[in-house]
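[Q] Does anyone have a clean structure-token version of this?
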Amino acid sequence: FHSPLFSSVWLCYTGMIALYGALRLWERGGRGLEEASIDSGLLYLPFGGGWLFAYTLNLQVMDFSPLIVLLTAVHFHYSAFLIPIFNGMLGRKLKKKGLLYAAVTWLIMLSPLFIAVGISFSKTIDVFAV
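[A] Here you go.
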């Protein structure tokens, strides 16, 4: 749906979701890795909203084609939002969370950031992050 009005409303909505994620993180003081994973998904969401907004306004972001701008919006909505939330909910259900869960959780929380940096600046970082 290619509408700047819709995407601006969506951007505001995703911003409010991120504020909720920041509030959750602040109230807990960062404790609970599974909850931090959920919070990271909530905090990443407005990046997807921002990229969608840029796409609908046909903004030139760096030297990215419109298709890359749209795919970046999709990337942040799915891999950066849904996967950390799914992982956090899985962590809530696990009876025993060991070192493997902690390592995978940290990778899940940090990989969207590294993938974005890699796509923007370094193919080596991108390949490593993916």
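[Q] Thanks! Anything notable?
[A] The chain is about 80% helix and 0% strand.
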